[in-house]
Specification:
Number of helices: 0
Oligomer: single chain
CATH architecture: Sandwich
CATH class: Mainly Beta
Shape: globular
Radius of gyration: 13 Å
Distance between the termini: 23 Å
Number of domains: 1
Helix content: under 10%
Order of helices and strands: EEEEEEEEEE
Strand content: over 45%
């Protein structure tokens, strides 16, 4: 998975961009370690689905202790099988998701198949955070 980090505001506000993978394992769609080595504050997560999954599929995105754990603390149960589109942790957070989540220095952001199958899924996850 390709990842890029962009900085602004004297390096405090940063954006991480990572490509989605179409894997059904926990952390299989995205598994990104904290890129800073210190605790950060995730302010916004944007899921850009350019190609929907070939069948029914929901995703959970969240903060996890490792890269192979399903977590729904940012976005809970977003439907990526019905149509391509843009989803975020403010308007599309679901029951357990939300904004302004701390990510400890050793934690991960994971996106996982919650139901269905991720086959055919393509797009990017954009994470805005403050160091």
């Amino acid at each position: 998975m390709g990842q890029q980090i962009f900085s602004s505001n004297a390096g405090r506000l940063k954006t991480l961009v990572s490509n989605l993978a179409a894997l059904d394992t926990a952390g299989g769609v995205i598994s990104v370690a904290n890129p800073e080595g210190v605790e950060i504050l995730i302010t916004e997560v944007l899921l850009i689905v350019s190609t929907k999954s070939t069948g029914a599929c929901t995703l959970d995105i969240g903060v996890a202790a490792n890269g192979t754990t399903l977590s729904d603390t940012l976005i809970d149960g977003v439907d990526v099988g019905a149509a391509a589109g843009r989803f975020d942790n403010i308007n599309d957070k679901g029951g357990n998701g939300g904004r302004d989540r701390a990510l400890a220095s050793t934690e991960f952001i994971t996106a996982s198949k919650a139901s269905g199958a991720a086959a055919g899924l393509a797009g990017q996850l954009v994470v805005n955070y403050v160091v």
